Structure to design on (968 residues):
């Protein structure tokens, strides 16, 4: 069975085997015929996609092909797209059409890519299952009774089902890596500051980072080298050169020191996932890498620290949604107070309200020191754990998630149990590190993700490590039954 | 009981940058609503603040101007509250780590005494927009042109003990920020606004009384009045054995009273925390040195120099040095006419009177310093009298030309020809034989009084052009004769 990749489509178009217009129509057709099973798109931009595809074909015909010319992508509905609704999975922004593009979108458009549409997500990126969307839950193509992960669940489901060759996502606590793991994809969360946050609707400013969800590490490299880089409009973006990631994939695994945090392999890890990960680690050993046991002593504090810092930042980031200038406004407000309370009451979903309440509480006078300040101290401890570990190893590996995708609705009454599913991914955001999840096998017919964590700005190492693994294995080529191949 | 008033001021100074503190939008007064508001100013989703470096330079410049500690690592914080003219639902301000730490200024009061007033801190922040409550059929309009305008909030120690000191301090800060070129200081357009913290305590006690904060007083005169009425209000309560409620009050200029703001508007927990969208500002020695090198002479130093160099009184020197344009003007006049005392007099009396009468700022005076200097030079070389000079000056103000052209055109040149004046004096004496006889019979004291009559007659005969010094001299001689 044939699996599309960006690299494959680029060479096919270069060789004249097919045009962008052809593959774009093909994807649009697949979306039309299959997405009602998945609900992975909020908006499909058919006309825009075909216009962009034809323009790409013309450029290629003139010999002026761009780096990603004609590649059909899907964008998480958190990235502002000029002229196309950007809902962030919320009723609050169901009517919001941005007059500007996010820097990530601008870069991908400038590289010639085609926008198929905007993908479903947990409201304001708050969630790990995509059940928190105003536009309804997304289903996992591997098992449509299960969640695809979140918050970039629509992007993951769409790529896994072959409704787009790759997609953008954002990762605040695992929102790229965990859905990539649940849907059998490669998902890269870059170093904090590597990719501009401008035009990405903010959840938790000090943790948010955009990145790609792809079939392969090679595709992730191709996308990252387009979207990475300093942005004068984002003060937290890093002013350092962007390596050509796609040209550094050949780096051998021989001698690579892989750290295995004991905290990631203890109780709480699903046995099936454990054995898939162990098999993958043996593969790395066979490829010449060296496995080193390490410790991240404060790893268990990542969840409490994260669930103070992220809601605290979110509670104020979401204050701008007040019904005054744009977005949802309640009917017939009687006064200002009523305008605020009803617009926000009706415009936000439960999980968003829960986090606004938690964050507001954590920042309140009398609680700030006990919660927010303490959480920031813990954050520094977690970061120094990682930095210490990197004195002895090149990368750190472990499972991306403790459990495989769960049944939709099964955790509805217990939000904290969902928070606990992010145990292996949150610390990476708190430490600002880059990490990638790669398909490592199946457990009970569901995909399992291997997480590789790198040093700050060492995405090259992550991508080449993942690529070498993918050269030796074919887990990343598996497609969900019923969604495989090309129509 | 004898009560002492204790005042601390928070002054918001609008910094004179071309663009806003966190966006590229132009900063300017007025404009159609929302024409100077970008996606950042509107807090559109995904928009991020980018710090205007000029604002940092201005903050540091102010800090150096009051000899304050400069915050080597200063941090922006979010101050959270909901209001329709606050688009993000938080104001980006500085809380724990302001750009300017402890400093001090010395102000001169009208009687020449000096007073030290401590400055606790000064921090950078953004202004909010404006809510417009008229003309919207029961709804409110929001104008975000002002949102994101850079402000420096200067917080004083509770060192002020009278409204005179408060005004002197306010004026000092006003002159300092305009000297430094970091603000236009235009209070009518809101470039300087003031919150007054005021409490009373029995004389001689150390503990502060409960204070009230009077928000947003926007002129020197209103600050003076607000202090006066709030003092009376608190005094009445305390004298009646009551106690002061700590609260925020508004000064209503129309009714000349302060009144409590609804507690709902003020009972805010701002939930400050470090702004994650901006990096801390790290200021190094090189940056500070570069700014030091651009530092102009400040009011205090200029005032001292005016006293020593021009022998002006402490008060005159302070008045002239308070405004950089006025000080430069004065120095221009003094250089042209070569007489600093006359120059000081003319600038602070005659020029000030005309500026005042026509409500014109010194920046827009129609008479240049060189032209006024040239006029004063004509007094000094006896071409005209001081009295005639005032008329000439008015004519200059009205655009009739330079001193010399007006003097010539009006034939005002002083008569200093001895022979001509002698004839004139002789005629006057001959025409008034009775007065001459009375004069000669009078004692010295009376004579002095009577001399004025003869001077007046001669001046009249000369149509005011006779050199008064010479006329006096000749009359004394002839009358003695």
């Amino acid at each position: 069975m044939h699996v599309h990749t960006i690299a494959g489509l680029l060479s096919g178009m270069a060789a004249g085997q097919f045009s962008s217009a052809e593959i774009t129509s093909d994807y649009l057709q697949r979306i039309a015929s299959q997405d009602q099973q998945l609900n992975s798109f909020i908006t499909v931009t058919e006309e825009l996609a075909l216009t962009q595809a034809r323009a790409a074909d013309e450029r290629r015909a003139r010999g002026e092909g761009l780096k990603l010319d004609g590649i059909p992508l899907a964008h998480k509905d958190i990235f502002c797209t000029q002229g196309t609704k950007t809902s962030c999975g919320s009723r609050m922004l169901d009517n919001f059409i941005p007059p500007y593009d996010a820097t990530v979108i601008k870069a991908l458009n400038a590289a010639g890519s085609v926008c198929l549409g905007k993908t479903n997500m947990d409201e304001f990126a708050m969630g790990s299952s995509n059940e928190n969307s105003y536009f309804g839950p997304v289903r996992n193509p591997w098992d449509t009774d299960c969640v695809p992960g979140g918050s970039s669940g629509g992007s993951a489901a769409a790529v896994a089902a072959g409704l787009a060759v790759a997609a953008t996502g954002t990762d605040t606590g695992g929102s790229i890596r965990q859905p990539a793991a649940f849907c059998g994809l490669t998902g890269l969360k870059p170093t904090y500051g590597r990719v501009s946050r401008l035009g990405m609707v903010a959840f938790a400013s000090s943790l948010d980072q955009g990145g790609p969800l792809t079939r392969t590490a090679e595709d992730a490299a191709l996308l990252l080298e387009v979207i990475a880089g300093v942005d004068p409009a984002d003060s937290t973006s890093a002013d350092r050169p962007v390596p050509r990631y796609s040209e550094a994939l050949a780096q051998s695994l021989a001698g690579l020191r892989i750290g295995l945090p004991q905290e990631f392999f203890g109780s709480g890890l699903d046995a099936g996932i454990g054995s898939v990960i162990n098999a993958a680690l043996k593969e790395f050993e066979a490829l010449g890498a060296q496995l080193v046991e390490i410790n991240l002593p404060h790893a268990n504090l990542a969840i409490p620290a994260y669930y103070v810092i992220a809601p605290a930042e979110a509670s104020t980031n979401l204050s701008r949604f007040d019904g005054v200038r744009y977005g949802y406004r309640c009917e017939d407000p009687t006064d200002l107070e009523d305008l605020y309370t009803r617009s926000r009451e009706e415009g936000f979903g439960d999980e968003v309200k829960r986090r606004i309440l938690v964050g507001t509480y954590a920042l309140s006078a009398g609680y700030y020191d006990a919660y927010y300040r303490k959480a920031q101290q813990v954050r520094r401890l977690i970061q120094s754990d990682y930095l210490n570990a990197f004195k002895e190893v090149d990368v750190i590996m472990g499972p991306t998630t403790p459990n495989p995708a769960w049944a939709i609705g099964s955790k509805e009454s217990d939000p904290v149990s969902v928070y606990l599913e992010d145990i292996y991914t949150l610390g990476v955001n708190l430490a600002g590190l880059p990490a990638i999840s790669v398909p490592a096998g199946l457990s009970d017919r569901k995909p399992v993700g291997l997480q590789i964590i790198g040093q700050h700005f060492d995405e090259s190492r992550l991508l080449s490590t993942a690529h070498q693994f993918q050269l030796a294995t074919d887990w990343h080529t598996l497609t969900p039954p019923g969604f495989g191949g090309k129509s | 009981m004898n009560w002492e008033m204790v005042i601390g001021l928070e002054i918001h100074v609008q910094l004179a940058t071309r663009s806003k503190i966190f966006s590229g939008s132009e900063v300017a007064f007025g404009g159609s609503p929302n024409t100077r508001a970008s996606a950042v100013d509107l807090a559109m989703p995904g928009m991020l603040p980018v710090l205007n470096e000029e604002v940092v330079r201005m903050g540091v410049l102010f800090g150096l101007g009051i000899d304050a500690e400069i915050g080597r690592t200063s941090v922006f914080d979010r101050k959270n509250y909901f209001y329709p003219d606050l688009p993000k639902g938080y104001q980006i301000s500085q809380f724990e780590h302001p750009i300017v730490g402890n400093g001090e200024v010395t102000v001169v009061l009208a009687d020449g005494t000096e007073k030290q007033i401590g400055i606790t801190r000064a921090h950078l922040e953004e202004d909010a927009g404006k809510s417009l409550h008229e003309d919207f059929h029961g709804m409110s309009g929001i104008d975000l042109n002002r949102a994101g305008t850079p402000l420096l909030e200067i917080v004083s120690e509770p060192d002020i003990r009278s409204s005179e000191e408060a005004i002197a301090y306010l004026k000092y800060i006003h002159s300092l920020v305009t000297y430094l070129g970091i603000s236009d200081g235009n209070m009518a357009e809101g470039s300087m606004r003031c919150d007054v913290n005021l409490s009373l305590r029995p004389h001689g006690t150390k503990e502060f009384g409960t204070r009230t904060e009077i928000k947003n007083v926007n002129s020197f005169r209103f600050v003076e009045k607000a202090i006066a009425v709030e003092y009376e209000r608190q005094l009445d309560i305390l004298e009646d054995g009551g106690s002061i409620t700590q609260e925020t009050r508004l000064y209503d200029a129309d009714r000349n009273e302060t009144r409590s703001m609804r507690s709902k508007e003020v009972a805010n927990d701002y939930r400050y925390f470090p702004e994650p969208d901006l990096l801390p500002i790290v200021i190094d020695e090189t940056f500070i040195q570069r700014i030091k090198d651009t530092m102009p002479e400040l009011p205090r130093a200029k005032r001292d120099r005016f006293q020593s160099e021009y022998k002006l009184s402490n008060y005159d020197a302070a008045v002239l040095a308070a405004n950089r344009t006025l000080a430069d003007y004065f120095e221009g006049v003094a250089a042209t006419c070569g007489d600093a005392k006359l120059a000081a007099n003319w600038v602070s009396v005659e020029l000030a009177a005309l500026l005042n009468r026509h409500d014109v700022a010194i920046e827009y005076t129609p008479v240049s310093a060189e032209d006024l200097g040239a006029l004063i030079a004509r007094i000094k070389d006896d071409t005209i009298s001081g009295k005639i000079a005032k008329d000439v000056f008015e004519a200059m103000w009205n655009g009739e030309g330079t001193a010399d052209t007006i003097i010539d055109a009006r034939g005002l040149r002083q008569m200093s020809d001895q022979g001509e004046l002698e004839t004139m004096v002789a005629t006057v004496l001959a025409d008034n034989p009775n007065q001459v006889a009375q004069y000669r019979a009078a004692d010295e004291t009376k004579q002095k009084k009577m001399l004025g009559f003869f001077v007046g007659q001669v001046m009249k005969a000369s149509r005011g052009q006779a050199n008064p010094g010479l006329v006096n001299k000749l009359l004394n001689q002839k009358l003695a004769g």
The mean pLDDT of chain B is 92. The two ends of chain B are 70 Å apart (CA to CA).
